[in-house]
UniProtKB/TrEMBL annotation, chain A:
It comes from the Bacteria. Residues 58-253 form the ABC transmembrane type-1 domain. Its main location: membrane. The chain crosses the membrane at residues 12-31, 62-82, 103-121, 127-147, 232-253. It comes from Micromonospora chaiyaphumensis. This is Polar amino acid transport system permease protein.
UniProtKB/TrEMBL annotation, chain B:
InterPro entries: AAA+_ATPase (IPR003593), ABC_ATPase_HisP-typ (IPR030679), ABC_transporter-like_ATP-bd (IPR003439), ABC_transporter-like_CS (IPR017871), MetN_ABC_transporter-like (IPR050086), P-loop_NTPase (IPR027417). It comes from the Bacteria. PROSITE patterns: ABC_TRANSPORTER_1, ABC_TRANSPORTER_2. Its main location: membrane. It is found in: Cell membrane. This is ABC-type polar-amino-acid transporter. Its EC number is 7.4.2.1. It comes from Micromonospora chaiyaphumensis. It is a peripheral membrane protein.
Length: 264, 264
């Protein structure tokens, strides 16, 4: 017996639904729910983590992320402009920096900023304590990535924009600042958001700098609580806390993109 | 910088321009008087756009000299941004700034380059929008306008800088046929107001009606020039005749049985 095309398609669809339901059923019935709840969902532990996980840990995670992002954005923009400069040594320096820092693990750079530099220059101190070290340590690497993104954005702005601005008597610098770069940033919003989300997660590396109760961030807070209570619940709570940042961020960016789509 | 009334608005002497091995302009001598409207016509690849772009130094001439209002553009020490303020340019692809409203498109260079205050810049901008018949579009973004409206905004943007000379680089070539008229009408009004204009165009009707002089270029040289009724009505050169028959009567080109000498 030969099935007709629509019958075949319907059959294949049903088989896939069936397989899906079967997998869910196995998970539901085979799992040891009592044990899972005991390990991952102890309400008393969840309660004990509030409000500190929000008021201190999440706050610090956001601060570290924004600090590193701001540092990376400013420095990355400078690097991008250097890479596009007419002055050859600027290009060499920027290219060398980008190649170097894209190849280094963020953790190593963080050690370098947090321990290497204080050992080399004991009389000097990185401003801002842990915050300063994290912002610079993560920002140095982020700048290398963002520089390439921003450079691509600048080059994606049509040449006619610069020409029109120059014909109106603007200097190269003024045309860059008021015409080209604002358009470039609209183009690179999606990749820069990606970078912001990566930095949010990288901010968990702050623990290697020896954070205190005041400077603790989400992951370290979760791990400390895990050590205290010998239970995995804190990790689940910490993980969900990151979503408080990343999910609204995607929304904000979607809205920004819509608004800029009008001005394109 | 000296400006004397006896000097023409534009003076070009033995202008050469090469792109690599390709010589696009092969010795152009050419003048535009104050208040004169000159239309430059010729087949694509004849160098007419390059000639126009050399006048405000968007292209660097390979050899020869150019004066605009008595200032030598080809002087290596020329204050190019200062001279360009007095030279408006309208591009085939409009090149409006897409991230700015129409009003901001018209005020940004006034404010950054001429250092006009916001109120004064907006007054000038609105007067010029009125001049091109788009006073109701001040708050719109370029993407919300038709091609013809965008090009008129581009003209108003140039006029806001109070130029003494306007360059038009095929201003209607990117427009739908029914939108060409609006732009040409604005340009005709501008010519009637006494603006010095250099127009690269394929609009023979505009050249015939508005131009004081028509210049026919082919193969990087000026083949013939004179009043429109002579150059367009009774061309002396075979190349001019061949070009005009192709443009004015394109459906009968094959019947002329001429070799394809004007293409390129």
């Amino acid at each position: 017996m030969k099935l007709r095309r629509r019958q075949r398609e319907r059959l294949s669809l049903w088989l896939q639904y069936l397989a899906f339901v079967a997998v869910i059923a196995v998970v539901i019935f085979a799992a040891d729910w009592g044990r899972l709840r005991e390990a991952f969902f102890r309400v008393d532990i969840i309660e004990s983590m509030f409000p500190t996980i929000i008021t201190v840990a999440l706050r610090n995670t956001i601060l570290y992320t924004l600090g590193a992002f701001a540092f990376g954005l400013v420095f990355g923009t400078v690097l991008a402009l250097m890479r596009l400069s007419r002055v050859a040594p600027y290009r060499w320096v920027a290219t060398a920096y980008i190649e170097l820092f894209r190849g280094l693990p963020a953790l190593l750079v963080l050690f370098l900023v947090g321990y290497g530099i204080p050992i080399a220059f004991p009389e000097r101190e990185i401003p801002g304590g842990v915050f300063g070290s994290i912002a610079i340590g993560l920002g140095l690497t982020a700048a290398a990535y963002m520089a390439e993104t921003i450079r691509a954005g600048i080059q994606a702005v049509p040449k006619g924009q610069m020409e029109a601005a120059r014909t109106l008597g603007m200097s190269h610098f003024t045309a860059m600042r008021t015409i080209v770069i604002p358009q470039a940033f609209r183009i690179v919003i999606p990749p820069l958001t990606n970078e912001l989300i990566l930095l949010t997660k990288d901010s968990s590396l702050a623990y290697v700098l020896g954070v205190t109760a005041q400077t603790i961030e989400v992951t370290k807070f979760g791990r400390d609580t895990l050590n205290d209570r010998v239970n995995a619940t804190p990790l689940l709570v910490a993980g969900l806390t990151y979503l408080i940042i990343t999910l609204p961020l995607s929304q904000v960016v979607r809205r920004l993109e819509l608004r800029y789509a009008k001005a394109r | 910088m000296t400006t004397s009334p006896s000097q023409p608005a534009v003076e070009i002497r033995d202008l050469h321009k090469s792109f690599g091995p390709l010589e696009v302009l092969k010795g152009i001598d050419f003048e535009v008087g104050h208040g004169e409207v000159v239309c430059v016509i010729g087949p694509s690849g004849s160098g007419k756009s390059t000639l126009l772009r050399c006048v405000n130094l968007l292209e660097e001439p390979t050899a020869g000299k150019i004066w605009v209002n008595g200032t030598e553009m080809t002087d290596p020490d020329v204050e190019i941004d200062a001279v360009r303020r007095g030279i408006g340019m309208v591009f085939q692809s409009f090149n409006l700034f897409p991230h700015l409203t129409v009003l901001d498109n018209l005020t940004i260079a006034q404010r950054r380059v001429l250092r006009r205050g916001r109120a004064e810049a907006e007054r000038v901008a609105r007067a010029n929008l009125d001049r091109v018949g788009l006073s109701d579009k001040a708050g719109a973004f370029p993407a919300q306008l038709s091609g013809g409206q965008q090009q008129r905004v581009a003209i108003a943007r140039s006029l806001s800088m109070d130029p003494q000379l306007m360059l038009f680089d095929e201003p209607t070539s990117a427009l739908d046929p029914e939108l060409v008229g609006d732009v040409l009408t604005v340009m005709r009004k501008l010519a009637e107001d006494g603006m010095t204009m250099m127009v690269v165009t394929h609009e023979m009707a505009f050249a015939r009606d508005v131009a004081d002089r028509v210049v026919f270029m082919d193969g990087g040289v000026v083949v013939e020039q004179g009043p429109p009724e002579e150059v367009l009505g009774a061309p002396r050169h075979e190349r001019t005749r061949s070009f005009l028959s192709r443009v004015l009567d394109p459906t009968h080109v094959a019947q002329l049985g001429r070799p394809d000498e004007t293409a390129g």
